[in-house]
Prior knowledge:
By secondary structure, this protein is of the alpha/beta class. 46% of the residues lie in helices and 17% in strands.
Amino acid sequence: MSAGDSTIRDxxxxxxGRQKIAxxxxxxxxxxxxxxxxxxxxxFADLRVGICLHLEAKTAYLAQTLAQLGAQxxxxxxxxxxxxxxxxxxxxxSGVTVHSWHGATPEEYDDFVRRVAEFRPHLIIDDGGDLVSxxxxxxxxxxxxxxxxxxxxxxxxxxxxxxxxxxxxxxxxMAVNDALCKYLxxxxxxxxxxxxxxxxxxTNLVIAGKEVVVAGYGWCGKGxxxxxHGLGARVTVTEVDPVAANxxxxxxxxxxTMDEAARSGEIFITTTGCRDVIARRHFARMRDGAILAxxxxxxxxxxxxxxxxxxxxxxxxxxxxxxxxxxxxxRIYLLGEGRLVNLACADGHPAEIMDMSFALQILALxxxxxxxxxxxxxxxxGDDLDRAVAAIxxxxxxxxxxxxxxxxxxxxxxxxx
Length: 417
Ligand code: ADE
């Protein structure tokens, strides 16, 4: 359905979407404060902002905040299963151009991203790199107005750095994912909570006493493992990095290879950003009833095609749960088609967490607008922006912290004994 300039599933879903956005707005005080502080300045006046992000309520509030600060905004979802149609409908009615719906086919997904590219954004927010990548593939003309953009995820930054190494990246991209107020909270506590939200909603099974295998012990894996411990699971970690493997050991996890873990694990969660982490040889040795979920950006971590090919039959066991039956009768349950379980099977990270991530996005775009001559490449988000977001959040929570005295500051600057 086209509503104005937007392409959404059903405009009549808007009231439910408005309710969801109203709820998250109440829990995102940092964005509210940025609206207050920057409202008069209108830092995005006359600027078009193109967004490719998981289109759920927090993202809608980000888009509305940018619009409030002067931007014209066009948005698409960054995963075919993460768009919530009611939120998309509400957002489209609030003056933001939306091209997205839940369950988009690969062709529809590409077409939605293309429409946002053709909006000719000055500023971009990307999550996973699809918008930036498509804009470069489509050629020079779409890039003409771009000042720069900001990337939300580890996977997106990997792709951007690869583009830059190949001398292909044509504009500056701010590495929001690498900011402290992003990965320390969003990747760790956000993923840690929302992944379990997705697993619990879809399975309704107990976690206590189960063996949970977490593939990858980056910030996302650490968060997922932390919460698995809290739920009473026995946690096994698989890693390729010896330092991360040692961290997992000291955090009280078992560490082994996926070849080994596949035999005993009951719930498997991939958080690596890499492909084929759980493959055919692993499915073949899994116990009956093993549950698989992916928390990485792309649906490549679990070899879903391989699972399908080696299975005699598959069926929907519950909404969001596909049962695959091996020739030996063993059953494997895949959640959310192997797509990001926290967004395909739940609502993504909690509002309070996305509040910090999205505040960084806004400040990163403001920085780009104020520094239009930044060189093409991947740029760190300044420490000042991290500190600003952290300070606003503490103020909103009513939390005070100590300040260094002059003597203490002098002490920290001196080298004499
Ligand atoms: N909501 C919007 N974007 C998200 C992301 N990247 N991860 C989790 N939840 C989100």
